[in-house]
Amino acid sequence: MKLKFSKLGTAWEIFQTFFALLASVTYVIQTYRPMSEMIAFDTVALVVFTADYLLNLYCCENRWQFVISVNGVMDALTIFPTILDRVGNGHSKALPFIRFVRVMRMLRLVRVVRVAGAHTVSAVRKQIYTIILLTACLIFVAAGLFHAVESNEDAQPDLRFGDALYFVVVTIATVGYGDIVPVTSAGRAVALGVIIVSFTVIPMEVSRLTQLIALQSHFRTTYHPLIGKPHVLVVGHVAEPRCLLDFFREFYHPDRAMTSMSSFEGSSNHQNEVDPSVVELPCVIVGPKEPSEEIINLLDHPVLQNRVTYIKGSVMSEEDMCRVGADAARACFVLASKSAPNTKQTDAETVMRLMAIRNYNPDLPVYTQIVSPVFIDYISGVDADHLLCLDQIKISLLAKSCLCPGLVTLISNLFRSSALVNRETLTNWEQEYAEGMALEVYATTLPTVFHGLNFTQTCQLLYNISCGEVILLAVYEQPTSSASKTTNPKKPTRGSKTMPQLRRYSWTLKPEQSTQMLSNPGSSMIMRPGQLVYVMSESKKFTMTSSIANDLKIWLAKGNVLPARPGKPDAKSKRPSLLSKKRGTPSNGQHSITSDERADRQRQDEILIDEPKYPVTGEAIQNHIIVVSDLEQTSTLQFAHMLRHERHVPGSNEYHPIIFLSWSSPKNAAAACRDLSEFSDIFVMLATGDSKRELMRANILGASRCVVLADKANIQEIDGESVDSQTIFHYLAVLSIQAEHGMDTTSGLMPMVELNMPRTMKILDSTLRKRTAISFQHRQELNSLAMGTMIVPTEVVAPTVFPVKSQQERAPDDISDIKRRLGKANVVKNIYLRGADNIISLDQQVKLSKRISSKRTLIKRELEFTRRHYFDVASSHQGSFD
């Protein structure tokens, strides 16, 4: 067994195979030259075949089983022809049996089939090789047998081996021309045996080949990249169709046409042109499983049909990486699962994929997604080019949205491609919102005219020459070594890249990083040649360097003058940085481990509260932020740190106490208290009942904001769809509290929700749409109330308990009183501020009218039923009287 799978055994098998082919060729030659003798070759063949038989007999585990096996019998039979030739030398004419035994040498061709089956190829190719060699062996052996029994002097002495071969092929093909026919009974038996074997063995092998082809994946193919047209790899979590749809919608958006690598190099007046070979970049999706039906339908879309290819494989296999052309790819995107319940396992798999890609092609730019910030350091150690931490960005945006409502929507719209729809079908506010959605953030370089101006002058000049179409946001500060490079464009290498390696988690980078993004640095930043800037515009064509230069020429032609260039800024002046600034960290006293463990334990006990009151003073916690969370460590700390910068001090408008409301276990709550012990105004409340009651216990009516974080451990599958069930219940509980207390969608209590499953948005959209419609109706009624005219409902509304004056008596007095007390200009505004009581009364009227309407319908049905029953009874009595 060891000899069979060793290199020596493989070499011996190959030698035996070629020697068997040589022995078969010598037999065919001897059929044309019956009197020729090859004593030396026969002797060598005898030695080689005997040595092979004895070697296999010695190495096998069960010798008796090898002797009676098919392979052992055929190997033994191939030795006999040479022995019988030596015994019957010169008597071949008298011993026809010897001539028949010589055909057994061709049985060595079966070894070719065995060698082909042992080769490490795919099952389909192995079966194809087996069928071809088996058919060839069958034809040659049958031709040898037919020639041996039919070439006698009594039958067909002029029959050659080629004629016998022709006869066998015609017989297997069931053509039967009749030019060559068997004369002897043995020849007819050979022909019959050929037909039987060819009709049984070959169809069985073909059927097995069909089964193997059916089992083989149609997506396990090889991608052949075209010369001059590089492709992009998409690996990782590729089983979610919605994620792939969002990715390709952004990737193939017209504004996402990538510029060439040399566009960021060279002289400052070098024009940034779009590389035509990059606009239509083909993508190769690499997944370990078969694509689902939804993904197949996505790939069949006309937009993606000739661009995206799905190949079944794994990045952990070098063979699969070779099949997808990873050595010739332009970039690789590693997607992460946004809905995975175990984020650590998901990020660990991402790290392993990144390491495998780096091991196969170290020069391949990799764009990586991770879920949790825990693995940032691990991926940084593997040399990730671009890194995007999903949870870090989501939690940061949710935290900042508590201070600036709508920030999540603004940032999402800026970094998501969209196009303006037909404005004729939109209302005024929808048109304004659609125009805002069309704005995006682009990276570009400015013409030479801007060099030497400070950031403030550049921002104003860029806004003026573009008529407000381009707004400067930030500057990418590159290292001084890269800024002083030669202006001659060169082919970029990995060691000398000038393309900025932007990392979305750059606010957690170490201070040693020399690159940083400066947002609104003011007059301290002087624009330099080749400096990369980030602008906001509706279309990419407005941000091209050529477009900016043309707009500048038109602006100067109108008589405008460029601003004066300021002097050199002080090198010691500190430039403000948005993303490179280190997060506000607590003082050393908060981080230091005190020797008094009792005080530390007391502080942790103070964080865990049962009611919204300060543990020390006993005062009620007001104007706070309620965060419904599962107390996951990274999410909790990230949210807390984003709202505890240096400017977030008590008394400021951006300061709010925080209460984490959780249905988690006491063990997780204790761990969260230890993590939050450095903060004196962040508390944890454990909930045990339903969402509505626990939210009221957390004083949600006195809260400033309410944030519902995703509970990744409670994702349920309903009718084959995974939804955030627990998150939906918390969201509906907040809406129910709003409805009961007369709050609309414009109130600050409107919850901000984090979702794991995108399909959950369908459920929340319908609820929010209905809620928005009701809120809009209430605002209309408030406007009419402020103007002194009330909208009369279509249904009859029962009188309320409040005394109502007539329209003639009430309108002049009420309007004059409102104008006198609130002021004419602020009537609507102040009524909105005091509109909760009015909304409650309106809700009571609407609910009462609905109850009255339903009661009237019920009374009508009862009267109709009584009337029918009366007529039925009357008719029955009348019939009995008759």
Automatic annotation (TrEMBL):
Keywords recorded for this protein, A-Z: Ion channel, Ion transport, Membrane, Potassium, Potassium channel, Potassium transport, Transmembrane, Transmembrane helix, Transport
Keyword Signal: no
Membrane topology, from the record: Multi-pass membrane protein
Domain of life according to the entry: Eukaryota
Biased composition range(s): Polar residues: 482-499, 511-523
Alphabetized PANTHER family for the sequence: CALCIUM-ACTIVATED POTASSIUM CHANNEL ALPHA CHAIN, SLOWPOKE 2, ISOFORM D
Stated name of the protein: BK channel
